[in-house]
Amino acid sequence: MSKGDLNLLEGDSQLSASTLPPSEAAPQAEVTRRGFLKQSGGAASAAALLSLPKASAAATVPVPATGPAQVLGPGAVPATLLVNGKPQKVMIEPRDTLVTVLRDRLGLLGTKLGCDRGGCGACTVWVAGAPSLACMTLALDVAGLAGQPPQAITTVEGLAKGSVLHPLQQAFVDKDALQCGFCTPGMLMSCAALHEQARAAGKLASVGEKEVREAIAGNLCRCGAYPHIIEAALAAAKLPTAPAPGKGGVK
Amino acid sequence: MNAFSLTIPRTIKQALDELTTPKGGPGKLKAGGIDLLDLLKEGIEQPGRLINIRRLDEAPQALHEIGEVKADAIPEGVWRLLPGSNDGSPPPRRDCLRIGSLATLAQVAAHPLLASKVPALTESAADIATPQIRQAATVGGNLLQRPRCWYFRSSEYQCAKKGGSVCFARDGENDFHAIFDNQVCCAVHPSGTAVALTALDAILSISSPQGDKFVRLSSFLVSPTQPGGAIGRENRLEADMMIHAIWIPSPGPGERSLYRKVKQKQSFDWPLADVAISARRKPTGNKELEAVRIILGAVAPVPHRARSAEALLLQSPSLDAERLRKIGQAALTGAIPLSRNGYKLPLVSGLVQQAIAELLS
User: Fold this and answer.
1) Of B76, B228, B268, the CB nearest to A14
2) Which residues of chain A have a CB within 8 Å of the CB of B30?
3) Which of A118, B6, B29, B275 is most buried (CB neighbours < 10 A)?
4) Residue B296 phi/psi, 5° resolution?
5) Which residues of B touch A217 (CB under 8 A)?
6) Are residue B218 and residue B328 in the same domain, yes or no?
7) CA B123, CA B139: separation in Å to the nearest integer?
8) What CA–CA distance (Å, rounded) separates A227 from A97?
9) Is A67 on the interface with B (CB under 8 A)?
10) Tell me, what's the pLDDT at A8?
11) Residue B229: which of B138, B300, B142 has the closest Cα?
12) CATH number, domain at A195?
């Protein structure tokens, strides 16, 4: 038995939301492809729309730091998500991942569900400003619960400021940085986070291909549009800066 | 994913209590949840309860922080496991780097103090998975990650590691499997930080209902054929314990380390092979080595120490091509490749030679 083993057996007792910007996202009035399909497709999809919760203030009850452990579920529990600056009350099961709640409960279909195993990056959103995988995050991990405020979630829908596209979105349009478009929301969130971080550090001008490649290392594009995506991310650094894109800031 | 309840403890003690008082079946600790969600989605793990320590209230700094602890403040348990003196007296106290187990891989990878003192660790953390995963995955969770063997990860195969009687990889698709110690279960240990931390002789402090326990990482990780090992597990963490912090003896002058990894896909991938080396030069200044640890990853059920290569390297500071080749060959001592992973022999030999040349030239 090694010394390490003995120690493991012996033991030793020596040790002892951010402020929310008001929601800028105006309700979409235009006819979208998906909206059109839903309306013309009949009642089946209406249920999803009916279940959309109304935006309301987060009702998190402060509780003392001491107390018993909270037990949630296994059924759905009421929780608050802070998505694109808006607190949203929603019923969440412990096993629900963030991507399913965003898409199926909140109707935010911009975030894509690709591999569902953290391998493709299509579901990338920002959690407290950092690119995160919505398929590998339990929704309750980022929800407001008793005593804990919700973490700020930003999806691709929260990237534009009203009708003004985020510089990355504009650059993706200008540089034709997509083919089928399935990876685009995730790509945008990874690239825009790099953009915002560099801008906050005053280093936007020095963003190079190496930084872009690192930022999108977790985003797969089956069409192989990488050259245009990288070109767009580099071009965005040179676009005029849009005012305060995104909600909740970037870490 | 099966339905489960989510327990949110406020303190470490509550988390451990929840693990040991199984109301509603045994619980499973969840931190970043990256590996666990994978296992849940495949149905490999089906716990009735998850105990979520990701948002633990108590002393979050103790679990998330990275820093240096002065020699006189390190816990007794860590002190006793520090590299010893040669004459049998207690090891000298020394400063240690301390990493809370809930520190994320992104935090570790970007930490300036760690980068200057233990580059092997920051290099290994920076090369794991993707930016998004490093943002959530914790260093404690990375050490406890289950193997990536596709038979183990598939619900279709009741392999030996999951209580079945057959290791399907032994005579099957074993391209990414072990070349050492592969007769019982040939899945390789998946953790890159484990390779680096073993080279750095890290010590774990572990919270348990009986108080804090301390163990060297090198004896914490066990293959099925090692004492204390079992085919169903890769380490000696009991069901009522959690890793609390990682301690690394602060390198002194003349000590250096590095980590190198070969991947099939360059953007992100698990290693085909990886290596971490830590070395200490004699104070004489003539490049002679006093101590060296060469740890190979992705070649065995746990990080594999290449002792023959270490011994050869210690013999002489000369690093001409012929000596490097011999050291690379020595790193393969005891290797028995499987039907489809013989490519790992030249790969590991070359990787070791390259890493030594880079670290010591």
Assistant:
1) B76
2) 138
3) B275
4) -100, 140
5) 130-131, 267-268
6) no
7) 13
8) 32
9) yes
10) 46
11) B300
12) 1.10.150.120
Bridge pairing between strands B49-52 and B5-8: parallel
State the residue range of the domain holding B26: 1-52
* Contact at CB, A217 and B218, closer than 8 angstroms: no
Indicate whether A208 belongs to any domain: yes
- Asked if the C-beta of A73 comes within 8 angstroms of chain B's C-beta atoms, the answer is yes
Q: What pLDDT tens digit does each residue of chain A (251 aa) get? A: 344 443 443 333 332 223 223 333 334 445 555 555 555 544 433 333 333 333 333 333 334 456 788 899 999 999 999 999 999 999 999 999 999 999 999 999 999 999 999 999 999 999 999 999 999 999 999 999 877 899 999 999 999 999 999 999 999 999 999 999 999 999 999 999 999 999 999 999 999 999 999 999 999 999 999 999 999 999 998 876 654 444 444 44
A vs B: CB pairs below 8 A: 165
| Amino acid (1-letter code) at residue A6 | L
Judge: A117–B41 Cβ closer than 8 Å, yes or no: yes
Instruction: With respect to residue B163, please indicate whether it lies within any of the assigned structural domains.
Output: no
Q: Which of B55, B75, B131 sits opposite A217 (nearest CB)?
A: B131
Interface contact A10, partner B, CB < 8 A: yes
Instruction: Name every residue whose Cβ is closer than 8 Å to that of residue B282 and which is 6 or more positions away in sequence.
Output: B254, B288, B289, B290
Beta bridge partners of A86: A83
Residue indicated by tokens 């101590």:
B291
Out of A69, A72, A124, the one facing B132 most closely (by C-beta) is A124
Return the residue in B5, B6, B42, B107 with the most chain A beta carbons within 10 A, the one to mutate for interface testing. Answer: B6
Total structural domains within chain A: 1
User: What ipTM was reported for this prediction?
Assistant: 0.94
Question: CB-CB: which of A4, A75, A137 is closest to B81?
Answer: A4
When scoring A63, A93, A141, A194 by the number of chain B Cβ atoms within 10 A, the one with the most, hence best to mutate, is A141
Pair B313, B241 in one domain: no
Q: Report if residue A227 sits inside a domain.
A: yes
> Is B222 in the same domain as B286?
no
Alpha carbon distance B50, B35 (integer Å): 13
The answer to whether A197 contacts chain B (CB < 8 Å) is no
The count of domains in chain B is: 3
Check whether residue B28 and residue B93 sit in a common domain: no
- Angle, nearest 10°, between helix axes B119-126 and B192-199? 180
Q: Which two tokens stand for residue B74?
A: 């390190």
B240 and B303 co-located in one domain: no
Q: Which among A3, A136, A140 is the nearest to B37, CB-wise?
A: A136
